[in-house]
Design goal:
heterodimer, A: alpha+beta, outer membrane lipoprotein receptor (LolB), chain A, ten-stranded antiparallel beta sheet, 3 helices, B: mainly alpha, two-stranded antiparallel ribbon, elongated
């Protein structure tokens, strides 16, 4: 009987039952707050309808509170939402209310869904569904519904920088609206192919693979000044 | 040997005429205006290109660079450069007739075919100079002003981003194909020049043919579908195919063959016409 109680106690501890949404989020926010700044190399692989883009390499810089910069020699396509804005949003606990949801296993990680609703009526984020591993205090999936960018889903994978909550891989799935070609710009006269049939909205994926993280080494504000 | 000497003479004639510099001057001015406009307000142009995706995606890196400017310049000017070329090449035979020097030219120890060929070679060299100048201004000056970077191309299927390392050969090949298109126009105006007694006729006729064929080419009417692939104007924009992915090798070869065939046929017509011509002026 004693061992049964012990089992149930451990089980509830592992999957996070008993913890409130705020408590689960706090663990994640504490990890985020450990990071004052970071820089990392990132490889960007995009598979987006209507866009053919080669694999790009870039360097990203972040500094608390919300300074973020992408430095790329070539053209790099990134999602508009979900890079640094989510962590900034989560850090400000007064700006949202969190509701605990179902348990779900994502890539063999047991997570709890936390639905986050902003309290500010002008917030760009309408709803954020965050799947958090309560044992690791890491976000493994986020589904962001935004005013201007539609729905963005982000899957995270972690490796060396788990302790800071910094992923080594992020997979974004974004809504791409039907492409409207400005006729005055595009003049591929030779193109006699019948217009390809596309749905009104298609999904695109952008995979970011991070390497060479430098965390809390100090980054000058000059880095974030626009070119 | 006589052909070579006569070609040198023809090149000297072109070099001494003011109208030869109108084309180069106008081309330079047009490119400088485009460069100035892009320097002043190029970002709004970029916004226009990426607008369809801006809500969801952010484009990072140097989009407004010399390679994009070069592409825009080539796209804008390839329609107008033929007029500047025909301004000179349309005058080559008819100008001699108008000024009364054709009879003296015909008395030289060179065949009539030799006269036509030397003028055609001179026209070819002038066209080549114009193309090289277009390439120099659009590529080197634009790169000097805007730096270099990946090229973002907009076509009916969406956006294509070509890495910088993959661009030098594409621009080189695009300029060769653009030269072929302009060479066709030069040969066409030379052919008209063989029929005319003054230089206005060939220039206006060349532009009329280009406008007419371009309109037929853009009309979405099935009755013209059979002739569209054989009109040289359809293939004047073939240089743009070089910036597609996958690179359409067979389509580009088809364009090259059709343009070269046009040059051969038009040169043949010019030779026949000039050899049979009664020189009375």
């Amino acid at each position: 009987m004693k061992s049964v109680f012990l089992f149930v106690f451990i089980l509830t501890g592992v999957v996070g039952f008993g913890q409130t949404a705020e408590e689960i989020l706090k663990g994640v926010i504490d990890k985020i707050d450990l990071v004052e700044d970071y820089q990392a190399d990132v490889q960007i692989k995009a598979a987006i309808p209507f866009i053919k883009v080669p694999i790009a390499k870039a360097k990203i810089y972040f500094k608390q509170d919300d300074k973020f910069k992408v430095e790329s020699k070539g053209i790099a396509i990134l999602p508009k939402q979900g890079m640094s804005d989510l962590t900034g949003f989560l850090s400000n606990e007064k700006k949202y209310s969190a509701v605990l949801g179902e348990a779900k296993t994502i890539n063999e990680h047991k997570t709890r869904l936390i639905s986050i609703l902003p309290t500010d009526e002008n917030s760009e984020i309408i709803l954020a569904k965050v799947y958090i591993s309560t044992s690791e205090e890491l976000i493994y999936r986020t589904v962001l519904t935004t005013k201007s960018s539609g729905t963005v889903s982000i899957d995270y994978e972690y490796n060396l920088n788990k302790k800071f909550g910094l992923p080594n891989k992020m997979t974004f799935t974004v809504d791409i609206k039907k492409f409207k070609m400005p006729k005055s710009v595009a003049s591929d006269i030779r193109n006699n192919e019948k217009e390809k049939k596309y749905k009104d909205n298609e999904k695109g994926t952008i995979v970011l693979i991070f390497s060479n993280y430098l965390v809390n080494k100090g980054i000058s504000d000059e880095v974030f000044k626009k070119d | 040997m006589m052909l070579w000497k006569n070609t040198i003479n023809e090149l000297l004639k072109i070099a001494t005429k003011i109208r030869s510099y109108i084309g180069i001057g106008a081309l330079t001015l047009l490119i400088l205006i485009v460069l100035f406009a892009m320097k002043a307000d190029g970002k709004s142009y970029i916004g226009f290109v990426t607008a369809s995706f801006e809500q969801t995606l952010s484009f990072n890196g140097k989009i407004l660079n010399g390679n994009l400017i070069a592409f825009i310049i080539m796209q804008m000017l390839i329609v107008h450069v033929p007029l500047l070329i025909s301004l000179v090449t349309g005058d080559l035979l008819s100008g001699e007739e108008a000024s009364g020097t054709i009879r003296m030219l015909a008395t030289k120890p060179i065949s009539r075919s030799g006269i036509v060929l030397s003028k055609w070679i001179a026209a070819t060299i002038y066209t080549l100079i114009m193309t090289v100048w277009l390439g120099f201004l659009s590529l080197f000056v634009a790169k000097w002003m805007f730096g270099t970077g990946d090229l973002i191309v907009l076509n009916s299927n969406g956006l294509l981003i070509i890495p910088e390392a993959d661009l030098a050969w594409r621009f080189g090949l695009a300029l060769i194909i653009a030269f072929l298109a302009l060479w066709t126009v030069a040969t066409l105006s030379l052919a008209f020049s063989a029929f005319a007694k003054n230089s206005v006729g060939p220039i206006v006729s060349t532009m009329s043919v280009i406008i007419l064929f371009t309109i037929i080419g853009t009309l979405d009417v099935s009755v013209f579908d059979a002739i569209k692939p054989y009109m040289f104007t359809t293939h004047m924009a073939a240089w743009r195919s070089v910036f597609e992915d996958p690179y359409p090798t067979s389509a580009i070869w088809e364009s090259v063959i059709i343009l070269v065939a046009h040059i051969a046929v038009l040169l043949g017509i010019t030779l026949i016409r000039f050899n049979k011509k009664d020189i009375t002026s």
